[in-house]
User: Which sequence fits this backbone?
């Protein structure tokens, strides 16, 4: 996510890192390079220009403390300005305290509204909300069927009116249905178009007037850069939405949309959507994304993801096993399953401070975990508990049973032994060594 932007920022900041003090000359060279980085990332020209002016004004007015290098100081200033540019602080979704919470989703076709509506429904259900999804996209073929399928996957009712060509009536009728069935949160998935047009705008304006939503969210594909910003501006002028959702951010290496859209439309980014899984949704935190852009990781999000998947008692049991050096293949398998639930390996490692730059060329494939699982599951309970008994004949049987080569099995056992040693001295392991271990998880 935004890896190209991270690497270019890192390269630009090296120009001032080795300097003894900040001067107008060396700061100008650095900011000229950062300006180029922002424009290459498809950041809005006016936004980039103002950003550079703000950073320069703060940098030249700062005294460099003896304990702080010029590189550290300028990085901190850029971090603060990036955070400010993207909204300063995260904004929670508004909840109606005196009635149903109605969330209206708008945006262009292909932005991911329908999938996001299901993700948001699952997110709110986990917060004990009783959710109704509303299929108000009456134009796109199979849009209603897609939403019903997603609703089934997350055990959430979907309201639709078969054969209806009146999206406003569908949205309005859904509120009555929600009230009659004790549902306190309504998410309305509206139609998109391939471009901004009058018919699209008039329909969403009419729906908004009828349902009086608690929140209107503009859903946009972050990978479309300035096109996303321009469409956001057009929607905001007519629909006056309350917040922004950035989808497909995990596939965006440049970051122009994420850095520009808040400044241009002056509405907060409320959620980001990462990947296809229905739990791959995050509340947007400007400071966390700024930290990732500057290669400092996002350890808070990493811990939060881990906490969602780790059972407290299991964590305590695992800690005891690690301390007594009794970590076995069954424990290893549990950790693999937990990691798969948290997200992709590359995404997770990118949250760890210091590893972002190392990940650029790292060969980290989530399919490797599937192979590892198959090998471990082909072992007997005794073999998982006592890996030392895995002799040649046992390894051959495991290879045949899992559909892998003997070299694959040997490589995993060797890696497991190395991991046991690594865990014993985890406190002294560097990020570079950690990424090296993940690189070794390669099956040819």
Assistant:
């Amino acid at each position: 996510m935004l890896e190209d932007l991270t690497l270019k920022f890192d390269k630009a900041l090296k120009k001032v890192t080795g300097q003894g003090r900040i001067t107008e000359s060396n700061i100008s060279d650095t900011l000229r390079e950062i300006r180029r980085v922002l424009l290459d990332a498809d950041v809005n020209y006016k936004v980039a220009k103002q950003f550079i002016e703000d950073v320069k004004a703060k940098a030249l007015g700062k005294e460099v403390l003896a304990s702080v290098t010029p590189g550290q100081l300028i990085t901190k200033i850029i971090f603060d300005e990036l955070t400010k540019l993207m909204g300063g602080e995260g904004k929670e979704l508004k909840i109606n305290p005196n009635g149903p919470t109605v969330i209206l989703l708008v945006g262009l076709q292909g932005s991911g509204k329908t999938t996001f509506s299901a993700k948001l429904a699952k997110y709110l259900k986990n917060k004990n909300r009783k959710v109704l999804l509303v299929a108000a996209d009456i134009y796109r073929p199979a849009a209603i069927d897609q939403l019903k399928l997603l609703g089934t996957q997350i055990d959430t009712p979907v309201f639709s009116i078969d054969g209806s060509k009146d999206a406003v009536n569908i949205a309005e009728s859904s509120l009555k249905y929600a009230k009659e069935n004790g549902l306190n949160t309504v998410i309305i998935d509206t139609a998109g178009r391939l471009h901004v047009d009058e018919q699209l705008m008039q329909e969403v304006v009419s729906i908004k007037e009828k349902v009086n939503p608690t929140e209107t969210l503009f859903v946009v594909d972050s990978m479309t850069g300035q096109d996303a910003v321009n469409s956001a501006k057009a929607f905001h002028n007519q629909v006056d939405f309350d917040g922004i959702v950035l989808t497909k951010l995990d596939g965006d290496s440049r970051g122009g949309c994420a850095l520009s859209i808040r400044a241009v439309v002056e509405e907060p980014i409320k959620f980001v959507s990462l990947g296809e899984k229905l739990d791959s949704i995050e509340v947007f935190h400007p400071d966390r994304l700024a930290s990732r852009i500057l290669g400092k990781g996002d350890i808070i999000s990493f811990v939060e993801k881990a906490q969602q998947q780790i059972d407290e008692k299991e964590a305590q049991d695992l800690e005891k096993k690690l301390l007594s050096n009794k970590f076995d293949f069954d424990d290893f398998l549990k950790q693999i399953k937990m990691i798969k639930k948290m997200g992709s390996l590359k995404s997770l490692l990118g949250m760890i401070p210091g590893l972002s730059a190392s990940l650029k060329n790292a060969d980290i494939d989530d399919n490797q975990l599937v192979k590892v699982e198959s090998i471990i599951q082909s072992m007997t309970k005794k073999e998982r508990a006592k890996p030392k008994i895995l002799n040649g004949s046992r390894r051959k049987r495991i290879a045949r049973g899992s559909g892998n080569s003997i070299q694959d099995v040997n490589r995993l056992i060797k890696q497991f032994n190395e991991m046991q040693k690594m865990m014993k001295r985890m406190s002294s392991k560097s990020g570079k060594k950690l990424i090296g271990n993940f690189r070794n998880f390669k099956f040819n």
